[in-house]
Amino acid sequence: MKQDLLNDPVFGMAAEQFDRVADFLKLEEQVRERCKWPKRLITVSLPVTMDDGRTEVFFGHRVQHHLSRGPVKGGLRFHPKVNLGEVAALAMWMNWKCALMGLPYGGGKGGIMCDPRTMSAGEQERLTRRFAQEIGQFIGPEVDVMAPDVGTNAQHMAWILDTYSTREGRFVPEVITGKPVELQGSEGRTQATGHGVAFLATRALNKLNIPVQGASAVIQGFGNVGSYAASTMAFYGMKVRGISDITGAIWNSSGIDPAALRKHVAETGGVARFPEAEAINAEELLLQECDVLVPAALERVITAENAPDLKCRILAEAANGPTTPEADAIIEERGDIFLLPDVLCNAGGVTVSYFEWVQNLQRFSWTKKEVLSKLETKLNEAFERLLSFTSEKSCSHRLGALALGVETVARVKKTRGLFP
Ligand code: NAD
Fold first, then answer.
1. Which of 73, 97, 109, 179 is catalytic?
2. Is the CA virtual torsion 335, 350, 188, 82 positive or negative?
3. Is 408 a domain residue?
4. Sign of the C-alpha dihedral, residues 5, 7, 8, 13?
5. Model pLDDT for residues 94-105, shown as the tens digit of each residue
6. Ligand 1 atom with least separation from CA of 225
7. Is 368 annotated as catalytic?
């Protein structure tokens, strides 16, 4: 069974969502199968010398879901629980996201099973460079362009850029996005995903006639996405009352200052014990009354257990796959939560990655203001397209967003023929 190769609950969830959408779109069997299964699943072993002199062998995966509409695009994750099925699910979601946003890419994703929190910078550099070397023959500016994800950042992208460029014998900035600006990264890329989440939250607040000024938010995860979502929301005049990360959860009903919290995290390694807020149970945090709830950490955190008790008006899915299909059904049935589905809500990252790639190919750079303004235009277009589609078809935002993406990919596959 094909499914056995990708035996993982996250892949099961992505496949179940796809099957629902394919039924809704009445996709022909032949196109349906080709849209569902990944084109390439690549696993490499990565022997790395650790600081204590041992050689440790890690596994790295890269899944290229399809290359029918252009190179694949997607992040590289460092996390102890990474496995091939999870990576394949994340690659599948990237497809629908790129298609929904009108970006000329297929979906890809990568991951290395490791715990960066317990590794030195030198160990992380050797692991990243080894991965870039082993995967080098399968990636490239017109084939597969990686970017940061959970556990990786601009420095990891710089190591990949350097290893790939050394291999090619020339500087190839367009092989990777999310790299430092001095290596031809794009202005605005670091904050793009969080900025997009906050921007879309304001669009949803507008639709619900809730004033942005003073609207309340709760955010799970204070990494790249969660921290920039918090800063942009505070900039818009919203109050971020609760925030959590792996170290704990904190609450201040008058609003948490994201800049002060960022400083505390840099000094202590996490949000726990932030002096300007009180501790709160991490599970309870998700159930607090708020206008916007933002899961910005990992998958499958909104479940059948907590979905009936959510007290938010808007669920802004900054993470990929934070809501299980069972929870989705409950939220749809409740009908009182405005869902910003992940493939739209966190699309700011891949959109500015696309801008970065375009700037690199043209050897040209845009200002941060230009980048963020072009990003808002693209997100707003996709948001309005989604709302028109869901109102015309009387379907949920989840189904609508996935359907807009899947339909585009299916049409391209059908038009091109059997090979891609
Ligand atoms: P990150 O590694 O920078 O941050 C992850 C955060 O989640 C950290 O603060 C960590 O402490 C926290 N966390 C981990 N486990 C937790 C738990 N059990 N409870 C609460 N917090 C927990 O990662 P990121 O880049 O911010 O990515 C977060 C999510 O956004 C992921 O789902 C990722 O796929 C998605 N995403 C990221 C980007 C991007 O540009 N970085 C783009 C699109 C989507």
1. 109
2. positive
3. no
4. positive
5. 999 999 999 999
6. 26
7. no
